[in-house]
Amino acid sequence: MDGLDRRRLLGLLTGVGVAGVTGGLAGCSSAGTPSERSGVSIGLLVPATGANKEVGADLELGFKLYLDLHDGKLGGRPVRIEVEDEGESTKSGAAALENLYKAQVLAVVGVANPDLLPFIRDRVEEAKVPLLAAHASPAEMPSAPYIWRTSYLTDEPALAIAHYLRRRLGNGSGRVSLITVPGTAGAELMLGFTSVYGSGAQDAITVRSGIKPTIGDYAQYAGEIADRNPKAIFCNLPSSHIVKFMDALSQAGLKPGSDVELYAPGAIAEGKALDELTDGARGLFTAMHYSADLNNLANHTFSSLFQSKFQRSPTAFAVAAYDAAAVLDQALTLAGDGTLSAPKVNTLLSNVGQVISPRGNWQFNQQRSPQQKWYLRKVEKDGPILSNVLISDLATLG
Q1: What's the Cα-to-Cα distance from 272 to each of 279, 317, 387, rounded to whole Å?
Q2: pTM of the full predicted structure?
Q3: Residues sharing a CB contact under 8 Å with residue 113, sequence separation 6 or more, in sequence order
Q4: Were 266 and a residue from 27, 100, 286, 349 both cysteine, which residue would form a disulfide, CB within 3.0 to 4.6 Å?
Protein backbone atom coordinates (compact mmCIF):
# COMPACT_ATOMS: atom_id res chain seq x y z
CA MET A 1 0.00 0.00 0.00
CA ASP A 2 2.27 2.75 -1.36
CA GLY A 3 5.05 1.63 0.95
CA LEU A 4 3.02 2.18 4.12
CA ASP A 5 2.46 -0.65 6.57
CA ARG A 6 -1.22 -1.57 6.51
CA ARG A 7 -1.42 -2.68 10.14
CA ARG A 8 0.17 0.57 11.28
CA LEU A 9 -2.31 2.57 9.20
CA LEU A 10 -5.27 0.72 10.63
CA GLY A 11 -4.00 1.35 14.13
CA LEU A 12 -3.55 5.05 13.49
CA LEU A 13 -6.73 5.59 11.54
CA THR A 14 -9.29 3.72 13.63
CA GLY A 15 -11.64 6.62 13.86
CA VAL A 16 -13.60 6.59 17.10
CA GLY A 17 -13.29 5.81 20.80
CA VAL A 18 -16.51 4.35 22.21
CA ALA A 19 -17.12 3.83 25.90
CA GLY A 20 -17.83 0.23 26.65
CA VAL A 21 -16.98 -1.21 23.21
CA THR A 22 -14.58 -3.79 24.56
CA GLY A 23 -16.94 -4.97 27.23
CA GLY A 24 -19.88 -5.07 24.84
CA LEU A 25 -18.02 -7.17 22.30
CA ALA A 26 -16.67 -9.50 24.96
CA GLY A 27 -20.26 -10.35 25.85
CA CYS A 28 -21.07 -11.53 22.32
CA SER A 29 -21.16 -15.22 21.52
CA SER A 30 -18.23 -16.70 19.65
CA ALA A 31 -20.53 -17.63 16.79
CA GLY A 32 -20.28 -15.24 13.90
CA THR A 33 -16.89 -13.55 13.69
CA PRO A 34 -16.73 -10.03 12.20
CA SER A 35 -15.58 -11.45 8.86
CA GLU A 36 -18.68 -13.63 8.72
CA ARG A 37 -21.23 -10.92 9.43
CA SER A 38 -23.80 -10.13 6.78
CA GLY A 39 -23.14 -7.25 4.41
CA VAL A 40 -24.71 -3.80 4.59
CA SER A 41 -25.67 -1.19 2.02
CA ILE A 42 -24.69 2.45 2.56
CA GLY A 43 -25.90 5.29 0.35
CA LEU A 44 -23.72 8.16 -0.86
CA LEU A 45 -25.78 11.23 -1.77
CA VAL A 46 -23.21 13.40 -3.56
CA PRO A 47 -23.32 15.74 -6.57
CA ALA A 48 -21.64 14.45 -9.73
CA THR A 49 -22.95 17.46 -11.66
CA GLY A 50 -23.50 21.15 -10.96
CA ALA A 51 -21.63 23.77 -8.95
CA ASN A 52 -20.89 21.43 -6.04
CA LYS A 53 -19.50 18.52 -8.04
CA GLU A 54 -15.93 19.07 -6.77
CA VAL A 55 -17.20 18.92 -3.19
CA GLY A 56 -19.13 15.78 -4.09
CA ALA A 57 -15.98 14.17 -5.50
CA ASP A 58 -14.09 14.85 -2.27
CA LEU A 59 -16.92 13.46 -0.16
CA GLU A 60 -16.86 10.26 -2.17
CA LEU A 61 -13.05 10.00 -2.02
CA GLY A 62 -12.99 10.49 1.75
CA PHE A 63 -15.65 7.86 2.43
CA LYS A 64 -14.12 5.30 0.09
CA LEU A 65 -10.61 5.90 1.47
CA TYR A 66 -11.81 4.83 4.90
CA LEU A 67 -13.31 1.67 3.41
CA ASP A 68 -10.10 0.97 1.49
CA LEU A 69 -8.19 1.05 4.78
CA HIS A 70 -10.66 -1.34 6.41
CA ASP A 71 -10.93 -4.08 3.76
CA GLY A 72 -14.18 -2.63 2.45
CA LYS A 73 -15.94 -3.27 5.76
CA LEU A 74 -17.70 -1.30 8.49
CA GLY A 75 -18.12 -3.02 11.84
CA GLY A 76 -16.70 -6.16 10.27
CA ARG A 77 -19.48 -6.25 7.67
CA PRO A 78 -18.82 -6.02 3.92
CA VAL A 79 -20.17 -2.77 2.52
CA ARG A 80 -22.00 -2.22 -0.74
CA ILE A 81 -22.04 1.46 -1.72
CA GLU A 82 -25.02 2.90 -3.55
CA VAL A 83 -24.14 6.27 -5.13
CA GLU A 84 -26.76 8.76 -6.30
CA ASP A 85 -26.14 12.11 -7.99
CA GLU A 86 -27.45 14.86 -5.72
CA GLY A 87 -27.38 17.30 -8.63
CA GLU A 88 -27.62 21.04 -8.15
CA SER A 89 -31.19 21.63 -6.97
CA THR A 90 -33.21 20.60 -3.94
CA LYS A 91 -35.59 18.77 -6.27
CA SER A 92 -32.84 16.64 -7.82
CA GLY A 93 -31.37 15.95 -4.38
CA ALA A 94 -34.71 14.82 -2.97
CA ALA A 95 -35.26 12.50 -5.95
CA ALA A 96 -31.79 11.00 -5.50
CA LEU A 97 -32.55 10.38 -1.82
CA GLU A 98 -35.70 8.48 -2.75
CA ASN A 99 -33.62 6.26 -5.04
CA LEU A 100 -31.38 5.41 -2.09
CA TYR A 101 -34.39 4.56 0.04
CA LYS A 102 -35.64 2.25 -2.72
CA ALA A 103 -32.26 0.53 -2.59
CA GLN A 104 -32.92 -0.08 1.13
CA VAL A 105 -29.70 1.48 2.39
CA LEU A 106 -28.92 1.32 6.09
CA ALA A 107 -27.66 4.91 6.24
CA VAL A 108 -26.98 7.83 3.92
CA VAL A 109 -23.79 9.95 3.81
CA GLY A 110 -23.19 13.16 1.88
CA VAL A 111 -25.29 16.23 0.92
CA ALA A 112 -23.16 19.04 -0.52
CA ASN A 113 -25.98 21.58 -0.93
CA PRO A 114 -26.83 23.16 2.47
CA ASP A 115 -30.28 24.13 1.14
CA LEU A 116 -31.12 20.46 0.60
CA LEU A 117 -31.03 19.50 4.28
CA PRO A 118 -34.04 21.57 5.44
CA PHE A 119 -35.85 20.58 2.24
CA ILE A 120 -35.55 16.84 3.01
CA ARG A 121 -35.58 17.03 6.82
CA ASP A 122 -39.14 15.80 7.29
CA ARG A 123 -38.68 13.03 4.71
CA VAL A 124 -35.56 11.78 6.51
CA GLU A 125 -37.48 11.62 9.78
CA GLU A 126 -40.35 9.82 8.10
CA ALA A 127 -38.04 7.24 6.49
CA LYS A 128 -36.15 6.66 9.77
CA VAL A 129 -32.85 6.11 7.94
CA PRO A 130 -29.92 8.00 9.51
CA LEU A 131 -28.37 10.72 7.35
CA LEU A 132 -24.81 11.84 8.06
CA ALA A 133 -24.42 15.25 6.43
CA ALA A 134 -20.75 15.72 5.54
CA HIS A 135 -20.81 19.32 4.33
CA ALA A 136 -22.00 22.65 5.75
CA SER A 137 -25.41 22.46 7.45
CA PRO A 138 -27.77 25.42 8.02
CA ALA A 139 -27.28 26.75 11.54
CA GLU A 140 -30.94 27.69 11.91
CA MET A 141 -32.32 24.29 10.88
CA PRO A 142 -33.83 22.56 13.93
CA SER A 143 -32.02 19.41 14.95
CA ALA A 144 -33.64 16.13 13.98
CA PRO A 145 -33.20 12.65 15.51
CA TYR A 146 -32.13 11.03 12.22
CA ILE A 147 -29.83 13.80 10.92
CA TRP A 148 -26.20 13.85 12.07
CA ARG A 149 -23.62 16.42 10.96
CA THR A 150 -19.95 15.44 10.60
CA SER A 151 -18.75 18.74 9.13
CA TYR A 152 -19.93 22.11 10.53
CA LEU A 153 -22.80 24.60 10.83
CA THR A 154 -22.89 27.48 8.37
CA ASP A 155 -22.39 30.25 10.95
CA GLU A 156 -19.40 28.63 12.67
CA PRO A 157 -16.64 30.13 10.46
CA ALA A 158 -17.94 33.58 11.44
CA LEU A 159 -18.18 32.66 15.11
CA ALA A 160 -14.60 31.36 15.12
CA ILE A 161 -13.19 34.47 13.42
CA ALA A 162 -15.24 36.82 15.62
CA HIS A 163 -13.90 35.19 18.80
CA TYR A 164 -10.36 35.58 17.47
CA LEU A 165 -10.73 39.19 16.34
CA ARG A 166 -12.50 40.17 19.55
CA ARG A 167 -9.42 39.06 21.50
CA ARG A 168 -7.03 40.63 19.02
CA LEU A 169 -8.73 43.98 18.48
CA GLY A 170 -9.29 45.24 21.99
CA ASN A 171 -12.21 43.15 23.24
CA GLY A 172 -14.35 44.02 20.24
CA SER A 173 -13.64 47.76 20.17
CA GLY A 174 -11.78 47.72 16.85
CA ARG A 175 -13.98 48.35 13.83
CA VAL A 176 -14.63 45.40 11.51
CA SER A 177 -16.45 45.75 8.20
CA LEU A 178 -18.64 42.97 6.81
CA ILE A 179 -19.52 42.15 3.21
CA THR A 180 -21.59 39.24 1.88
CA VAL A 181 -23.53 37.94 -1.06
CA PRO A 182 -27.29 37.47 -0.52
CA GLY A 183 -28.75 34.23 0.77
CA THR A 184 -29.46 32.29 3.92
CA ALA A 185 -25.86 31.21 4.47
CA GLY A 186 -24.61 34.78 4.13
CA ALA A 187 -27.21 36.06 6.56
CA GLU A 188 -26.29 33.38 9.10
CA LEU A 189 -22.60 34.25 8.81
CA MET A 190 -23.19 37.97 9.35
CA LEU A 191 -25.52 37.34 12.29
CA GLY A 192 -23.05 34.91 13.81
CA PHE A 193 -20.19 37.38 13.55
CA THR A 194 -22.06 40.33 15.06
CA SER A 195 -23.50 38.19 17.88
CA VAL A 196 -19.98 37.43 19.10
CA TYR A 197 -18.01 40.52 18.13
CA GLY A 198 -20.46 43.13 19.37
CA SER A 199 -20.85 46.82 18.53
CA GLY A 200 -17.50 47.07 16.73
CA ALA A 201 -18.93 45.01 13.87
CA GLN A 202 -20.27 47.44 11.26
CA ASP A 203 -23.48 46.91 9.31
CA ALA A 204 -22.94 44.36 6.58
CA ILE A 205 -22.74 45.46 2.97
CA THR A 206 -24.73 43.05 0.79
CA VAL A 207 -23.50 42.64 -2.77
CA ARG A 208 -26.34 42.73 -5.28
CA SER A 209 -27.34 39.45 -6.92
CA GLY A 210 -25.76 38.64 -10.27
CA ILE A 211 -22.74 40.91 -9.86
CA LYS A 212 -19.88 40.30 -12.28
CA PRO A 213 -16.50 39.81 -10.64
CA THR A 214 -14.69 42.88 -11.99
CA ILE A 215 -12.82 45.66 -10.23
CA GLY A 216 -15.37 48.16 -11.48
CA ASP A 217 -18.26 46.22 -9.97
CA TYR A 218 -16.56 46.17 -6.59
CA ALA A 219 -15.28 49.75 -6.60
CA GLN A 220 -18.43 51.06 -4.89
CA TYR A 221 -18.31 48.47 -2.11
CA ALA A 222 -14.57 48.88 -1.59
CA GLY A 223 -15.01 52.65 -1.39
CA GLU A 224 -17.73 52.35 1.26
CA ILE A 225 -15.54 50.08 3.34
CA ALA A 226 -12.47 52.30 2.95
CA ASP A 227 -14.51 55.26 4.22
CA ARG A 228 -15.24 53.28 7.39
CA ASN A 229 -11.50 52.70 7.99
CA PRO A 230 -11.85 49.26 9.59
CA LYS A 231 -9.11 47.28 11.29
CA ALA A 232 -10.30 44.09 9.60
CA ILE A 233 -12.84 42.89 7.02
CA PHE A 234 -14.92 39.73 7.20
CA CYS A 235 -16.07 38.80 3.70
CA ASN A 236 -18.36 36.11 2.37
CA LEU A 237 -17.82 36.25 -1.38
CA PRO A 238 -17.42 33.58 -4.09
CA SER A 239 -13.85 32.44 -4.63
CA SER A 240 -13.85 33.91 -8.13
CA HIS A 241 -14.67 37.35 -6.68
CA ILE A 242 -12.08 37.55 -3.91
CA VAL A 243 -9.07 38.78 -5.90
CA LYS A 244 -11.17 41.41 -7.70
CA PHE A 245 -12.44 42.64 -4.35
CA MET A 246 -8.91 42.78 -2.93
CA ASP A 247 -7.76 44.75 -5.99
CA ALA A 248 -10.66 47.16 -5.56
CA LEU A 249 -9.75 47.67 -1.90
CA SER A 250 -6.18 48.56 -2.91
CA GLN A 251 -7.49 51.04 -5.48
CA ALA A 252 -9.61 52.59 -2.72
CA GLY A 253 -6.53 53.11 -0.55
CA LEU A 254 -7.01 50.14 1.76
CA LYS A 255 -4.39 47.57 0.80
CA PRO A 256 -5.09 44.09 2.19
CA GLY A 257 -2.21 42.83 4.30
CA SER A 258 -0.69 46.21 5.11
CA ASP A 259 -3.65 48.53 5.74
CA VAL A 260 -6.29 45.98 6.67
CA GLU A 261 -6.58 42.22 7.28
CA LEU A 262 -9.09 40.20 5.27
CA TYR A 263 -10.89 37.19 6.76
CA ALA A 264 -13.27 34.71 5.14
CA PRO A 265 -14.97 31.32 5.67
CA GLY A 266 -12.60 28.46 4.90
CA ALA A 267 -14.73 27.02 2.09
CA ILE A 268 -13.71 30.03 -0.03
CA ALA A 269 -10.18 28.60 -0.18
CA GLU A 270 -10.83 24.86 0.03
CA GLY A 271 -9.96 22.36 -2.70
CA LYS A 272 -10.67 23.61 -6.21
CA ALA A 273 -11.69 26.98 -4.78
CA LEU A 274 -8.07 27.58 -3.78
CA ASP A 275 -7.02 27.22 -7.42
CA GLU A 276 -9.62 29.82 -8.41
CA LEU A 277 -8.16 32.36 -6.00
CA THR A 278 -4.74 32.56 -7.73
CA ASP A 279 -1.70 34.34 -6.25
CA GLY A 280 -3.66 37.57 -5.93
CA ALA A 281 -5.35 36.16 -2.82
CA ARG A 282 -2.11 35.75 -0.88
CA GLY A 283 -2.54 37.09 2.64
CA LEU A 284 -6.23 36.14 2.92
CA PHE A 285 -7.04 34.57 6.31
CA THR A 286 -9.67 31.82 6.51
CA ALA A 287 -11.33 29.81 9.28
CA MET A 288 -11.83 26.07 8.87
CA HIS A 289 -12.15 23.00 11.08
CA TYR A 290 -9.32 21.25 9.24
CA SER A 291 -5.87 21.98 7.84
CA ALA A 292 -3.61 19.56 6.02
CA ASP A 293 -0.79 21.03 8.18
CA LEU A 294 -2.27 19.87 11.49
CA ASN A 295 0.37 18.26 13.67
CA ASN A 296 -1.31 15.11 14.92
CA LEU A 297 -0.54 11.49 14.18
CA ALA A 298 -3.88 10.72 12.53
CA ASN A 299 -3.49 13.66 10.16
CA HIS A 300 0.14 12.92 9.31
CA THR A 301 -0.89 9.47 8.14
CA PHE A 302 -4.19 10.47 6.50
CA SER A 303 -2.74 13.48 4.67
CA SER A 304 0.28 11.52 3.45
CA LEU A 305 -1.88 8.67 2.17
CA PHE A 306 -4.42 10.99 0.52
CA GLN A 307 -1.68 12.94 -1.29
CA SER A 308 0.04 9.75 -2.39
CA LYS A 309 -3.20 8.27 -3.70
CA PHE A 310 -4.76 11.34 -5.32
CA GLN A 311 -1.75 13.65 -5.95
CA ARG A 312 -3.22 16.60 -4.06
CA SER A 313 -3.84 17.81 -0.52
CA PRO A 314 -6.92 16.53 1.30
CA THR A 315 -9.81 18.87 2.01
CA ALA A 316 -12.07 19.35 5.00
CA PHE A 317 -14.86 17.81 2.88
CA ALA A 318 -12.91 14.57 2.43
CA VAL A 319 -12.16 14.45 6.16
CA ALA A 320 -15.84 14.92 7.07
CA ALA A 321 -16.87 11.98 4.86
CA TYR A 322 -13.95 9.91 6.12
CA ASP A 323 -15.14 10.59 9.68
CA ALA A 324 -18.72 9.71 8.72
CA ALA A 325 -17.43 6.28 7.70
CA ALA A 326 -15.50 6.02 10.97
CA VAL A 327 -18.61 6.86 12.98
CA LEU A 328 -20.66 4.25 11.12
CA ASP A 329 -17.86 1.73 11.60
CA GLN A 330 -18.07 2.07 15.36
CA ALA A 331 -21.87 2.10 15.42
CA LEU A 332 -21.93 -1.18 13.48
CA THR A 333 -19.20 -2.57 15.71
CA LEU A 334 -21.44 -1.89 18.70
CA ALA A 335 -24.19 -3.88 16.98
CA GLY A 336 -22.08 -7.02 17.19
CA ASP A 337 -23.63 -9.96 15.36
CA GLY A 338 -27.20 -8.83 15.93
CA THR A 339 -29.78 -8.10 13.27
CA LEU A 340 -29.44 -4.58 11.89
CA SER A 341 -32.05 -2.02 10.97
CA ALA A 342 -31.74 1.65 10.11
CA PRO A 343 -33.46 2.78 13.37
CA LYS A 344 -31.11 0.52 15.38
CA VAL A 345 -28.07 2.06 13.67
CA ASN A 346 -29.42 5.51 14.50
CA THR A 347 -29.69 4.53 18.17
CA LEU A 348 -26.15 3.16 18.14
CA LEU A 349 -24.85 6.41 16.68
CA SER A 350 -25.91 8.04 19.95
CA ASN A 351 -23.40 5.80 21.75
CA VAL A 352 -20.41 6.81 19.64
CA GLY A 353 -17.89 8.70 21.74
CA GLN A 354 -14.86 10.76 20.83
CA VAL A 355 -13.78 10.66 17.18
CA ILE A 356 -10.02 10.41 16.68
CA SER A 357 -9.80 12.37 13.45
CA PRO A 358 -7.25 14.03 11.16
CA ARG A 359 -8.93 17.34 12.12
CA GLY A 360 -8.25 16.65 15.82
CA ASN A 361 -10.47 14.83 18.26
CA TRP A 362 -14.17 15.75 18.24
CA GLN A 363 -17.52 14.41 19.38
CA PHE A 364 -21.21 14.90 18.68
CA ASN A 365 -23.05 17.43 20.84
CA GLN A 366 -26.70 17.15 21.84
CA GLN A 367 -27.78 18.62 18.49
CA ARG A 368 -25.87 15.87 16.65
CA SER A 369 -23.28 18.32 15.34
CA PRO A 370 -19.52 18.26 15.96
CA GLN A 371 -17.98 19.86 19.02
CA GLN A 372 -14.61 20.62 17.49
CA LYS A 373 -11.67 22.97 17.21
CA TRP A 374 -11.43 25.64 14.51
CA TYR A 375 -8.20 26.85 12.91
CA LEU A 376 -6.86 30.06 11.36
CA ARG A 377 -5.21 29.56 7.98
CA LYS A 378 -3.51 31.97 5.57
CA VAL A 379 -3.42 31.73 1.80
CA GLU A 380 0.30 31.71 0.98
CA LYS A 381 2.84 29.98 -1.19
CA ASP A 382 4.18 26.71 0.22
CA GLY A 383 7.09 26.31 -2.16
CA PRO A 384 5.66 26.73 -5.67
CA ILE A 385 2.11 25.79 -4.62
CA LEU A 386 -0.60 28.07 -3.24
CA SER A 387 -1.68 26.60 0.09
CA ASN A 388 -3.71 27.16 3.24
CA VAL A 389 -0.87 27.62 5.71
CA LEU A 390 -1.86 26.87 9.31
CA ILE A 391 -1.44 29.90 11.60
CA SER A 392 -3.08 29.08 14.94
CA ASP A 393 -6.10 27.72 16.78
CA LEU A 394 -9.20 29.94 16.78
CA ALA A 395 -11.86 28.49 19.07
CA THR A 396 -13.66 25.31 20.05
CA LEU A 397 -17.28 25.43 18.92
CA GLY A 398 -20.29 23.18 19.22
Answers
A1: 14, 12, 11
A2: 0.88
A3: 47, 52, 86, 88, 89, 90, 93, 135
A4: 286
